[in-house]
Write a structure and sequence with these properties.
By secondary structure, the protein is α+β, with helices and mostly antiparallel strands. It has one domain. It contains 2 helices and 5 strands. A 5-stranded antiparallel β-sheet has the order 1-2-3-4-5, with helices on one face. It is rod-shaped.
Length: about 130
């Protein structure tokens, strides 16, 4: 008798090997995804800072209102080039998104846990940005 096909033992061996590969790969992939989200958040915060700097230059040229130190609302975030749905907007100092200094532009930006980035807080200037989960 000449039968072709795989035995049950061979199929189980393949399944075990695939399970081992997945057990090794999944944590690595999760770490890579979290790192990418953090990098995207950091890039978006730098975009917000550049937007604030641009609005300051516009105001110096006489064609707009300069941003001020204080809490940012959704309209401010949109004006600075960000999607306000990704960020915490709060009137309470020390929470949400705020401009803490204008020379140099220093911010505190907080993303919502449901945002495309996940929950992060960034503080600092464009060159000295610190991001924490």
């Amino acid at each position: 008798m000449n039968k072709k096909g795989f035995t049950l033992v061979e199929l189980l061996a393949v399944i075990v090997i695939l399970a081992i590969i997945l057990a090794i790969a999944v944590p690595s992939i999760t770490g890579i995804l979290n790192s990418a989200k953090r990098s995207a958040f950091e890039a978006d915060v730098k975009l917000i800072i550049k937007g604030i700097e641009y609005k300051m230059l516009e105001a110096d040229a006489g064609s707009g209102t300069a941003p001020g130190v204080g809490q940012m609302d959704g309209e401010d975030l949109t004006a600075y080039g960000a999607d306000s749905a990704n960020y915490v907007v709060s009137e309470t100092a020390g929470q949400g998104c705020a401009i803490t200094s204008l020379n140099p532009v220093t911010v505190r930006i907080e993303s919502t846990s449901g945002s495309e980035f996940g929950a992060y807080v960034a503080t600092g200037t464009r060159n000295t940005l610190t991001v924490t989960p």
